[in-house]
Design goal:
alpha/beta, 200 residues, 24% strand, single chain, 7-stranded mixed β-sheet
């Protein structure tokens, strides 16, 4: 079936399409839909729900929305929900957006030489079928922040999150492997199981 992804990120669309190969994944721009909801939630799940409901109200078809980011222990969980608009330890109040390389450099600078490098990607994913019928899951990919970018795959913070058990960063993982172990991949696996057992 067709599932709408509540995002304008074509990289994310590619990942989600690989995670849900039995379904057709569309994003709003595929249909010329302007989509830019205010992500005013206090956590990943609230933001995912905001995006899911906003797109469902437009298309009235099944929607998947995710909100994800990187949480660094030594920075009290920051940048967290501000990951995409990170402009300092507490996020950007003016909505300023840096490009991925600038965000990565800023995060490395913020962490400095702190001995605790532990961090994780977090993904809250929602399958929204109607205002009264939805499913949510939250998953993580654990790792450590390194001092310099490594790898050319993936996007966002992938080049600076090192996965110790794999011996490489998220950006160095083969795409199929990343989709299997990533925060988004694990959340998507749960949603896939729900889809397989649903009557829609």
């Amino acid at each position: 079936m067709t599932i709408w992804l509540a995002s304008g990120n074509t990289h994310k669309k590619k990942e989600i399409a690989a995670i849900f190969p039995l379904h057709t994944v569309k994003i709003p721009k595929d249909a010329g839909i302007y989509f830019d909801p205010d992500e005013t939630g206090a956590d990943f799940l609230e933001n995912a729900m905001i995006k899911a409901k906003a797109l469902y109200d437009i298309v009235k078809e099944p929607v998947i929305a995710d909100d994800s980011g990187i949480c660094v222990d030594a920075l009290d969980g920051q940048p967290g929900i501000y990951s995409a608009r990170y402009a300092g330890r507490y996020g950007s109040e003016d909505g300023k957006k840096l490009d991925a390389a600038e965000r990565n450099a800023l995060l490395i600078q913020e962490l400095g030489d702190h001995p605790n490098r532990k961090a994780r990607f977090v993904c809250a994913m929602v399958l929204f079928l109607s205002p009264d019928r939805f499913f949510a899951v939250q998953e993580t990919l654990e790792g450590e922040i390194i001092q310099h970018e490594k790898g050319s795959g993936g996007f966002g913070y992938d080049p600076i999150l090192y996965i110790p058990e794999k011996g490489m960063t998220a950006a160095e993982l083969p795409e199929e492997e990343k989709n299997r172990i990533s925060h988004r991949g694990k959340a998507g696996k749960c949603i896939n199981e729900i889809l397989r057992n649903l009557e829609i």
